[in-house]
Amino acid sequence: MKFLENLVIKKIRPNFIEGGKFENFYSAYDALETFMFTPDYTTRTGAHIRDAIDLKRTMMMVILAMLPCLLFGMWNIGHFHYLSLGEASEFWPNMFYGMLHVLPIVVVSYAAGLGVEFIVAVKNKHAVQEGFLVSGMLIPLIMPANIPLWMVALATIFAVVIGKEVFGGTGMNILNVALTARAFIFFAYPTKISGEIWINEAGSVDGYSGATALGDLALTVGKAQNLPEVTGIMEKFGPDGMYSMSNSIIGMIPGSIGETSVIAILLGAAFLLFTGIGSWRIMGSMFVGGLTMAWLFNLADANAFMSLPPLHQLMVGGFMFGMVFMATDPVTAAQTNTGKLIYGFFCGVFGIMIRVFNPAYPEGVMLGILFMNVMAPLIDHYVIEANIKKRAKRLKLQTA
Fold first, then answer.
1. Which residues, in sequence order, are CB contacts of 363 under 8 Å at separation 6+?
2. Domain range spanning residue 304?
3. 209 bridge partner residues
4. What interhelical angle do 262-275 and 280-300 show, nearest 10?
5. pLDDT band at 208, cuts 50/70/90?
């Protein structure tokens, strides 16, 4: 490590500092140096918080929390590939097949997003911001495995430029960057991301597609529950069905790369809560909000979609992944403790409401969280105003 430190800091750095041959590219060099080593400088002006780790290290902790979802997603892609071929599903062949399809998406996501970050940093002569370290991993995890790579690159560039840089960069954006990328693809190329998921390539057939759990449920809306077609779909959610509660929790169902396994997601949630990075208020209140909305729909029982048990409703689709990794984004979520409870609750309510009411949006969690991202500053404003009025009233009583 000492050899690497001497090489990077003592021999390479002089070429990038003021007066060096590549001083215009100091931002790019600084990003790489601070990624490998803790910075040897501290903030001297403005408000700041002193901590044992910097923002890059915090972002890396979030990426570690997502690794169970990434690894299981790779395995799941291979599992369904060999299952559709009628062949035995084995661990290492599944993992290898999944890696061949997932890693290119991860590489393209980081290349496109960090490319924009480096260009903006060099142009404006400021340090490369760290926020995309997490977004670069989130974007692949919320995509289907067959998403064209050029589409991932286009959506990522759009999300970084329009969703973050136009607002001033990391810490200034009002919308979650990864969800902005997904929303771009959803509205620009809806057939590539909603309702169905790619499973395999085999023989002369380019691909084998099968509906996701939410895609199947959307087909039941507006139809009588006693129709054979509807009955057949709902049987898939039974104890022995493809979308059973146990399969949904384990993750052995079709879906986006990192969203299917509730167990993998909860492992990430436990890590984030243990390290103090994740917000239990947002996670808990979003779960309660989603469960409440699903329970109310279940009481109404107006169609087969609403008849799905409330807890099962939360186990399918991207609800749990959104609850742990999207809604808790510290930049776009509410900042006050009371505001976090309100924000999370309505993320859950709107996520389930949009999903069930409008079959054109089989995954409402994306729109629910994005809508609450916009509402978060307003929530905090009224929470703070209420606290100010409460304290003013208390002070008035004390001085009376």
1. 194, 214, 317, 318, 355
2. 214-253+279-387
3. 198
4. 150
5. very low
